[in-house]
Write a structure and sequence with these properties.
Largest sheet: 2 strands, antiparallel
Number of helices: 9
Strand order of the largest sheet: 1-2
Number of strands: 2
Radius of gyration: 17 Å
Distance between the termini: 43 Å
Amino acid sequence: MNVFRLFADLLHLGSIFILIARLNQTKSCSGISLKTQGLYLLVFATRYLDLFFSFVSVYNTLMKIFFLASAGYIVYLMTGPLKTTHEKGLDSFRVEFLVGGALIFALLFPHKYTILEVLWSFSIYLEAVAILPQLFQMTRTGEADNITSHYVFALGGYRALYIINWIYRYYTEDNYSDYVAWVSGVVQTVLYADFFYIYFTRVLKGKAFKLPV
Protein backbone atom coordinates (compact mmCIF):
# COMPACT_ATOMS: atom_id res chain seq x y z
CA MET A 1 0.00 0.00 0.00
CA ASN A 2 1.19 3.51 -0.80
CA VAL A 3 -0.42 6.93 -1.02
CA PHE A 4 -1.01 6.66 -4.78
CA ARG A 5 -2.89 3.38 -4.47
CA LEU A 6 -4.84 4.70 -1.47
CA PHE A 7 -6.01 7.79 -3.36
CA ALA A 8 -6.77 5.62 -6.41
CA ASP A 9 -8.95 3.33 -4.30
CA LEU A 10 -10.70 6.33 -2.74
CA LEU A 11 -11.37 7.77 -6.18
CA HIS A 12 -12.76 4.40 -7.29
CA LEU A 13 -15.02 4.32 -4.25
CA GLY A 14 -16.03 7.89 -4.96
CA SER A 15 -17.06 7.02 -8.52
CA ILE A 16 -19.36 4.30 -7.24
CA PHE A 17 -20.92 6.53 -4.58
CA ILE A 18 -21.48 9.24 -7.21
CA LEU A 19 -23.27 6.80 -9.52
CA ILE A 20 -25.41 5.24 -6.80
CA ALA A 21 -26.39 8.68 -5.49
CA ARG A 22 -27.24 9.82 -9.01
CA LEU A 23 -29.44 6.79 -9.67
CA ASN A 24 -31.30 7.08 -6.37
CA GLN A 25 -31.75 10.86 -6.47
CA THR A 26 -32.92 11.15 -10.06
CA LYS A 27 -34.79 7.84 -10.09
CA SER A 28 -33.45 7.39 -13.60
CA CYS A 29 -30.58 5.59 -15.31
CA SER A 30 -30.83 7.72 -18.42
CA GLY A 31 -27.35 8.31 -19.83
CA ILE A 32 -25.86 5.36 -17.95
CA SER A 33 -24.78 2.26 -19.84
CA LEU A 34 -26.20 -0.93 -18.36
CA LYS A 35 -23.72 -2.86 -20.49
CA THR A 36 -20.77 -1.13 -18.85
CA GLN A 37 -22.22 -1.81 -15.40
CA GLY A 38 -22.81 -5.45 -16.30
CA LEU A 39 -19.21 -5.75 -17.46
CA TYR A 40 -17.95 -4.29 -14.19
CA LEU A 41 -20.03 -6.83 -12.27
CA LEU A 42 -18.43 -9.60 -14.36
CA VAL A 43 -14.99 -8.07 -13.76
CA PHE A 44 -15.38 -8.14 -9.99
CA ALA A 45 -17.05 -11.56 -9.94
CA THR A 46 -14.12 -13.16 -11.79
CA ARG A 47 -11.40 -11.18 -10.03
CA TYR A 48 -12.41 -11.68 -6.43
CA LEU A 49 -12.93 -15.44 -6.34
CA ASP A 50 -9.92 -15.53 -4.01
CA LEU A 51 -12.21 -14.20 -1.28
CA PHE A 52 -13.06 -17.84 -0.65
CA PHE A 53 -9.46 -19.08 -0.64
CA SER A 54 -7.11 -16.47 0.80
CA PHE A 55 -6.97 -13.57 3.24
CA VAL A 56 -4.67 -10.59 2.69
CA SER A 57 -6.02 -7.95 5.05
CA VAL A 58 -9.27 -6.59 6.44
CA TYR A 59 -8.95 -3.59 4.10
CA ASN A 60 -8.49 -5.84 1.08
CA THR A 61 -11.43 -8.06 2.00
CA LEU A 62 -13.81 -5.18 2.71
CA MET A 63 -12.93 -3.45 -0.56
CA LYS A 64 -13.57 -6.63 -2.56
CA ILE A 65 -16.92 -7.19 -0.85
CA PHE A 66 -17.91 -3.57 -1.44
CA PHE A 67 -17.04 -3.63 -5.14
CA LEU A 68 -18.95 -6.86 -5.66
CA ALA A 69 -21.99 -5.72 -3.68
CA SER A 70 -22.12 -2.22 -5.20
CA ALA A 71 -21.78 -3.54 -8.75
CA GLY A 72 -24.60 -6.00 -8.11
CA TYR A 73 -26.74 -3.25 -6.56
CA ILE A 74 -26.24 -0.92 -9.53
CA VAL A 75 -27.19 -3.65 -12.01
CA TYR A 76 -30.22 -4.45 -9.82
CA LEU A 77 -31.37 -0.82 -9.89
CA MET A 78 -30.95 -0.58 -13.65
CA THR A 79 -32.72 -3.86 -14.41
CA GLY A 80 -35.36 -3.52 -11.69
CA PRO A 81 -36.77 -0.27 -10.25
CA LEU A 82 -35.23 1.96 -12.95
CA LYS A 83 -35.59 -0.43 -15.89
CA THR A 84 -38.06 1.76 -17.80
CA THR A 85 -35.59 4.67 -17.84
CA HIS A 86 -32.77 2.68 -19.44
CA GLU A 87 -32.04 3.96 -22.93
CA LYS A 88 -31.66 0.58 -24.57
CA GLY A 89 -31.57 2.00 -28.07
CA LEU A 90 -28.52 4.11 -27.23
CA ASP A 91 -26.81 1.45 -25.12
CA SER A 92 -26.06 -0.69 -28.15
CA PHE A 93 -22.33 -1.45 -28.01
CA ARG A 94 -21.55 -5.09 -28.95
CA VAL A 95 -20.08 -6.25 -25.62
CA GLU A 96 -19.67 -9.85 -26.78
CA PHE A 97 -16.57 -8.72 -28.67
CA LEU A 98 -15.13 -7.22 -25.49
CA VAL A 99 -15.83 -10.34 -23.42
CA GLY A 100 -14.57 -12.66 -26.14
CA GLY A 101 -11.42 -10.61 -26.71
CA ALA A 102 -10.65 -10.47 -23.00
CA LEU A 103 -11.12 -14.25 -22.74
CA ILE A 104 -8.77 -14.90 -25.66
CA PHE A 105 -6.10 -12.63 -24.19
CA ALA A 106 -6.51 -14.28 -20.78
CA LEU A 107 -5.97 -17.71 -22.30
CA LEU A 108 -3.00 -16.59 -24.39
CA PHE A 109 -1.36 -14.20 -21.92
CA PRO A 110 -2.42 -15.06 -18.37
CA HIS A 111 -0.57 -14.05 -15.26
CA LYS A 112 -0.17 -17.76 -14.57
CA TYR A 113 -1.74 -20.88 -16.03
CA THR A 114 -4.12 -21.73 -13.21
CA ILE A 115 -7.90 -21.36 -13.23
CA LEU A 116 -7.92 -18.50 -10.74
CA GLU A 117 -5.07 -16.65 -12.45
CA VAL A 118 -6.64 -17.01 -15.89
CA LEU A 119 -9.91 -15.62 -14.51
CA TRP A 120 -7.97 -12.83 -12.78
CA SER A 121 -6.23 -11.99 -16.06
CA PHE A 122 -9.59 -12.06 -17.85
CA SER A 123 -10.97 -9.54 -15.35
CA ILE A 124 -7.98 -7.24 -15.87
CA TYR A 125 -8.27 -7.33 -19.66
CA LEU A 126 -12.05 -6.86 -19.49
CA GLU A 127 -11.82 -3.93 -17.08
CA ALA A 128 -9.52 -2.15 -19.54
CA VAL A 129 -12.36 -1.93 -22.07
CA ALA A 130 -15.46 -2.08 -19.85
CA ILE A 131 -15.97 1.69 -20.08
CA LEU A 132 -16.34 1.56 -23.89
CA PRO A 133 -20.14 1.02 -23.91
CA GLN A 134 -20.52 4.06 -21.63
CA LEU A 135 -18.27 6.22 -23.80
CA PHE A 136 -20.03 4.93 -26.92
CA GLN A 137 -23.42 5.87 -25.50
CA MET A 138 -22.12 9.36 -24.68
CA THR A 139 -20.89 9.80 -28.25
CA ARG A 140 -24.31 8.83 -29.59
CA THR A 141 -26.06 11.50 -27.53
CA GLY A 142 -23.18 13.99 -27.82
CA GLU A 143 -23.59 15.08 -24.22
CA ALA A 144 -23.94 13.96 -20.61
CA ASP A 145 -25.17 15.50 -17.38
CA ASN A 146 -22.46 16.76 -15.05
CA ILE A 147 -22.98 14.04 -12.43
CA THR A 148 -22.42 11.34 -15.05
CA SER A 149 -19.34 13.23 -16.22
CA HIS A 150 -17.97 13.32 -12.66
CA TYR A 151 -18.59 9.57 -12.37
CA VAL A 152 -16.70 8.76 -15.57
CA PHE A 153 -13.87 11.14 -14.63
CA ALA A 154 -13.47 9.48 -11.22
CA LEU A 155 -13.24 6.08 -12.91
CA GLY A 156 -10.59 7.29 -15.32
CA GLY A 157 -8.72 9.13 -12.58
CA TYR A 158 -8.58 6.03 -10.42
CA ARG A 159 -6.86 4.07 -13.18
CA ALA A 160 -4.46 6.93 -13.95
CA LEU A 161 -3.41 7.00 -10.29
CA TYR A 162 -2.86 3.25 -10.40
CA ILE A 163 -0.29 3.79 -13.15
CA ILE A 164 1.59 6.15 -10.84
CA ASN A 165 1.28 3.52 -8.11
CA TRP A 166 2.87 0.91 -10.41
CA ILE A 167 5.73 3.24 -11.30
CA TYR A 168 6.33 3.93 -7.62
CA ARG A 169 6.31 0.24 -6.76
CA TYR A 170 8.65 -0.56 -9.66
CA TYR A 171 11.31 1.75 -8.22
CA THR A 172 10.76 0.93 -4.54
CA GLU A 173 10.12 -2.83 -4.53
CA ASP A 174 12.51 -5.60 -5.50
CA ASN A 175 11.52 -7.76 -8.50
CA TYR A 176 8.13 -6.09 -8.88
CA SER A 177 6.48 -6.69 -12.25
CA ASP A 178 2.92 -7.18 -13.44
CA TYR A 179 2.77 -6.82 -17.20
CA VAL A 180 -0.85 -7.92 -17.49
CA ALA A 181 -2.04 -5.12 -15.22
CA TRP A 182 0.43 -2.57 -16.63
CA VAL A 183 -0.54 -2.97 -20.28
CA SER A 184 -4.26 -3.15 -19.51
CA GLY A 185 -4.07 -0.12 -17.24
CA VAL A 186 -2.33 1.98 -19.85
CA VAL A 187 -4.87 0.94 -22.52
CA GLN A 188 -7.73 1.75 -20.16
CA THR A 189 -6.35 5.20 -19.34
CA VAL A 190 -5.75 6.02 -23.02
CA LEU A 191 -9.42 5.29 -23.76
CA TYR A 192 -10.32 8.19 -21.48
CA ALA A 193 -8.05 10.70 -23.27
CA ASP A 194 -10.77 12.50 -25.27
CA PHE A 195 -13.13 12.46 -22.31
CA PHE A 196 -10.48 13.96 -20.01
CA TYR A 197 -9.86 16.78 -22.48
CA ILE A 198 -13.54 17.73 -22.68
CA TYR A 199 -13.95 17.34 -18.92
CA PHE A 200 -11.09 19.72 -18.13
CA THR A 201 -11.98 22.25 -20.83
CA ARG A 202 -15.74 22.32 -20.23
CA VAL A 203 -17.09 20.64 -17.09
CA LEU A 204 -14.50 22.10 -14.70
CA LYS A 205 -15.28 25.52 -16.15
CA GLY A 206 -18.94 25.14 -15.29
CA LYS A 207 -20.10 24.23 -18.78
CA ALA A 208 -22.15 21.24 -19.82
CA PHE A 209 -20.35 18.15 -21.11
CA LYS A 210 -20.78 18.20 -24.88
CA LEU A 211 -18.78 16.53 -27.59
CA PRO A 212 -17.51 18.75 -30.40
CA VAL A 213 -19.80 18.76 -33.44
